[in-house]
Write a structure and sequence with these properties.
- The protein is α+β, with helices and mostly antiparallel strands.
- Helices cover about 25% and strands about 40% of the residues.
- It is built from 2 helices and 5 strands.
- Strands 3-2-1-4-5 form a 5-stranded antiparallel beta sheet.
- β1 (about 1-10) and β2 form a beta hairpin.
- It starts with a strand and ends with a helix.
Length: about 100
């Protein structure tokens, strides 16, 4: 999911805003989430601390069954710069334009 990173809480949780890129390239807010951070992977915490935007996967988004089913833990995080986000917006606009022609 595409998110704006809001706040890291005691290195155990992160608050994010889930975002979507609309067909016209505008960015819309879908919902605010509080996600758990993995206790065994400091690299995810560092990525989120140093990024305004990120693409993340969580334990719930992988459709796996585990003993922590009630938790929604970040398992993968890729930093995204504002320029990369703008590039994704342009790609979305171009894809919609191509599909309509």
């Amino acid at each position: 999911m595409l998110v704006r990173v809001n706040k890291i809480i005691d290195n155990v949780k992160v608050t994010v805003t889930k975002l979507d890129i609309e067909d016209d390239g505008s960015i819309t807010t879908l919902e605010n989430l509080e996600l758990d951070l993995p206790s065994t992977d400091d690299s995810i915490i560092e990525i989120l601390k140093n990024s305004q935007y990120a693409c993340i996967f969580t334990s719930r988004s992988t459709n796996t069954i585990n003993e922590n089913e009630g938790k929604n833990t970040v398992i993968i995080a890729n930093a995204m710069t504002a320029e990369e986000l703008a590039q994704e917006q342009r790609k979305t606009i171009d894809a919609v334009r191509t599909r309509r022609n």
